[in-house]
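Build the 3D complex.
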Amino acid sequence: MATDFWASSHYKRWIVDRATLKESRSDDLQYVDDPEYLDFFAIFFANVITKLGKKLNFRQRVIATAIVFFRRFYIKNSYCETDPFIVIAACCYVAGKAEESPVHIKNMVAEARLFFSQQPYGVKYFPSDNSKLAEMEFYLVADLECDLTVFHPYRTLLSLCKKESSNDLQTEAGEVGVGVDDGPRYWGSGDGQLELPDDAFQLAWSIVNDTYRSDLCLLYPPHLLAITALYLAVVLHGPTRELLQHQSHSVEATPVHSSPRRSSRQNSSTSSSHSKKPSQDFVAFFAELNISMPLVATIAQEIISLYTLWERYFEDSDHVDSARGTFYGHASAQTQPAVSHSGVSTPVENLEDAQRPHGATPTFLLQVLTRMRENRLSDMAHASSGRHVAVNKMLERTQAAG
Amino acid sequence: MSTKHHLGDSPISYHPSAASGWADHDSPRIRKTSKAGFRPIGEPSSAVKLFFPRDEDDDEAGPASQHKSPASPQIHSEVPAKRARDEGALPAPQPMQVLPSIVRDSLKASIVPKPAGSGDVSVSPAQQSHTVEPDTEGTPRPSSPSGTTCKDLYAIVSQVGEGTFGKVYKARNVITNVHVALKRIRMEAEKDGFPVTAMREIKLLQSLRHQNVVRLYEMMVSNGSVYMVFEYMDHDLTGVLSQTQFSFSEANLKSLCSQMLAGLAYLHRKGVIHRDIKGSNILINNRGELKLADFGLARFYQKRRRSDYTNRVITLWYRPPELLFGATVYGPEVDMWSAGCIMLELFTKKPVFQGNDEIHQLDVIYRILGTPSTERWQGLTALPWYELVKPKDVIHGHFRDLFSRWLSPAALDLAERLLAYDPTQRVTALEALEAPYFKEEQPPPELPVDLSTLEGEWHELETKRERAKKRRKLENGLV
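Done.
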């Protein structure tokens, strides 16, 4: 059933472990100077997909699906052997169809060609031929094993939060099965809803958006990402943080010290009944969800390290919908102009000397990608004779097969 | 022409252990893929690498492109994206010395440790790419020729239908001898690639499981085509109603009707509108089980917020009046009208409303059910095409007179509720299952298990062919 995450291919086939991820990058690791660049690729390509998706007027959900397709594809393929730009176009194209926002192949090719030809990408080779995209689409769908239903954290987020005002975040409208019961929870036991101020909810939403800039969507089920985003939002959002601190103080002040968690819940139930509305007990809320909080903490760590990495990634037009600023608002404002403006024209050597340990720009990453491909190709050019034998064998077979 | 032509002549799907049989491939078989039939995650994809060869200026281009062609017979890949890439764009274009990526792949393949005693099992990428490992993820592939590897082969038996987006074949799993239906998805590279209807059907069926909805076992990629692998159903309703050997009892018909409604009730509860209920999309097997099929037009709908859909859905004869009046905002009621048509057809053996075009279709409906009025159908005048297609004269319905020779009073009641003009008055699938026809009136429903005695398999396609043959014979006889 569409709403049953646990029976879905997403859960059964597409949640992988770190080792698998590492294995999937093994080819790339041979050709990249610094493994960290591959993490920058994750940010860079997600940004490319997001921007292209916006050009195509995709809803956030469609963009997210396209990014998940991209990540799933690169579990089985390496950057140095494929052209990520045509893969991106195919991911967007398939995601549009899979999420009921189809784009005509002609428009898709035109938009992608135009967008990729601009700076910083400067991709001039994008095929104008529709059939190339169609062919790539076929390979993509095959590598996706025809599993086109993707679950996203947004639904969990919406079902967990009682929003102060109903805003324009109904982006899930087209979601598979959403009409059924508006998303019954497929996990945990809690049934409460968190009352969050709009901006705190928006923050959680943006954190979810940001998780797509890493491999998190391959590692953890979406509901855990949503809960982690909420958890981070509650901690980071000024007013709710104060509330939280206030609550934890009052917990300490209560006489029942043996079991702080339960006391906090009691505290909330008594206080929320007669005091002002927003003073609900966040700690109790998370406790009652009956999910692994240590796992949530792990994910939170990973999200934070994503932001730490991202802090050293410089792209001209960063997205307004990112929660990055909440983590490192000041820093990016200071460093960004200096690097990203010069980055376009900085020679490779300079970048390597001065910035390699520090950060990356799109231009730099594109150079890295080019070099990876070149290295790989020159590697193959010096192949031992054994490889030619393999080719000939194949040739024979092919001929035998007619 | 035939299935053999499509599937047999380039057996790209290939398993290493079967390598010795490479040249011997004229049987119309295609390879099934493992659980959905693809490489386990983590194993590199090589199909894709065919798309990214670096073979320009290279002698090796020959084998590489030769190699390509069987892999994607429909989609040609003569212009590698790489070529243009190397011509500029990237900061430091260097003359690249290249070998086809295939070289690397085959190298890889030969590096992959083989189970002992596997002999010559080096795989070429194209083979590998469409090869489907048996359902033993993580465990080494059994390589004995008689092992499970061959189990993943289907032999095409015959064509049994024509779906929304491609032909449907009957095929046999050559090891288990279990029959399946293979639906080949037609790709049109020039148009919009992978058909969106196919994508819908795949997504929907992967998420549905019910005894009255056809089961999608898995997806399979072979020979550059995507196949959907379904459970095999011996007949479809159109076919089975057209034959004269076997006739259904009252109780059998009641069972078929209730199974159809149970399937619809499940779909509607899941938020799915089928939008193409008709005889050839209702399948029946020899155990008397009925299942709904062909979800190419189906889609999810929202219970609370109704949105605009196209009204160009549902085969004309089964299309409800609101769609004929141009409604674009509708819900699962459209399926219930079609179900009403099917219910009558079960008894009369023929589609009841056989219009030639939209206007005529309404006319045919009026002649049986009478013309709709605002008393019978409140929203009638507000419908988009009301002025264009509204009834000219008042016709009184004589539905009950017409059908009382076939249907019992309780059956007539239910059919009437299914064929209510006003969609808001139309009975839902769940309500219909509670109707006195099923709950009170004798006899109780009974699965038509005796269908297994019926000779042959009856599908609309065969019925049509049979009819065409007869007609030809008749014409010849006359001449």
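Residues 235-453 of chain B form a domain with the Transferase(Phosphotransferase); domain 1 fold (CATH 1.10.510.10).
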